[in-house]
Amino acid sequence: MITPRTLRTNARSALRADSLIRTALLAQLAGDQGEVWLVSAWISDVELVDNSSGAFDYLLGEDPPERCRLSDLLVLLARAGTTVRVVTRPTMANEAFVQRLRARADSTCDLRVIEDEDVHEKCLVGPGWIFQGSMNFTRNGLARNKEQITYALDERAAAQALVEFQHEWEQA
Fold first, then answer.
1. What does the pLDDT look like over 93-130, one tens digit per residue?
2. Which class for 62: exposed (0-12), middle (13-18), buried (19 or more C-beta within 10 A)?
């Protein structure tokens, strides 16, 4: 385990969580299949990868996009064999993201959106890594609001979160 790191972000600081999230999701795409859960009360289809120079073509597939959004990365992960689960509230604010995700998912991928009116937790977790904190996965959460997010490379914490999420939303 690497010691967890906590970031406090806001519009005035240079600290932003999107670069960490981008790195984790791209590394997941390049590596093992495993399972990724995104749990957030509010989610928007934030742009995470600027691929206009083609620097990420090798990861983003045969027809790589110039700009890659959160939904694009989640679908690419699912098509590469990663089990992807997204848990969010059934609100108008999340509707565009959820519709785009569902429209792009097909029978070749294991991607599921779960809507829960009571969810308030904010977490992105995969095999051996975890992000947790106050930040929703929205434009404001990533770039504007004063937020706190802790990330860690921690097999045990990640595995525990995955088991808890499976129990809460897959078994119900």
1. 999 999 999 998 888 899 999 999 999 999 999 999 99
2. exposed
Q: DSSP readout, 122-154?
A: -EEEETTEEEEES--BSHHHHHTS-EEEEEEE-
166, 158 Cβ separation under 8 angstroms: no
C-alpha distances (whole Å) from 102 to each of 55, 105, 161 are: 27, 5, 24
Angle 170-138-83 (CA atoms, 0-180°, nearest 5)?
30
Cβ proximity of 137 and 46 under 8 Å: yes
For the whole model, what pTM was predicted?
0.88
Give φ, ψ of 20 to 5 degrees. Answer: -70, -45
* Residue in the structure block whose two tokens are 């240079």: 14
Distance CA 27, CA 36 (A): 12
Alpha-carbon distance of 170 to 140, in angstroms, equals 29
